[in-house]
């Protein structure tokens, strides 16, 4: 964001949004937009189903899909919710989930949300999680006062 937008950290001004504001939207979202970068530098954005679980967005994609190939080459990712009025944007790294406990938790949350159980045994599927390194949020109706930046480190 340009400095002229004056996005402030959560604790540096009245009207700024607490992190739980963003987490509530991330948990309630049905669709998450995933933005990746191809090997030649072109951006690629696609919606996915996923879940907010334990401070991360979890989602799956085919290993040979455009986003799967992009993330294999460059794991940097942006996750954005659909609303331009109540905005939550995450920046981070997509990490393959291989831990059986995390995979079970993801599958259970996914099934509860979408009434569909992901096939964790399918080797063609890449199961990913994104923990935010930084995030942005605002309410369009009060952008100047609510525009907030959160920093989490890597």
Would you give the CATH topology? Pnp Oxidase, Chain A
Helix content: 10-25%
Strand-residue proportion: 35-45%
In the CATH scheme, the class would be Mainly Beta
Backbone CA Rg: 16 Å
According to DSSP, the number of beta strands is 8
Largest sheet: 6 strands, antiparallel, barrel
- Low-pLDDT stretches: none
User: What's the number of structural domains?
Assistant: 1
Secondary structure category: alpha+beta
Strand order of the largest sheet: 2-3-4-7-6-5
* CATH architecture annotation name: Roll
Give the structure's gist in a few sentences.
The protein has helices at about 20-30, 65-75, 100-115, 145; strands at about 10, 30-35, 45-55, 55-60, 75-80, 85-95, 125-140, 150. The chain has about 150 residues and is of the alpha+beta class.
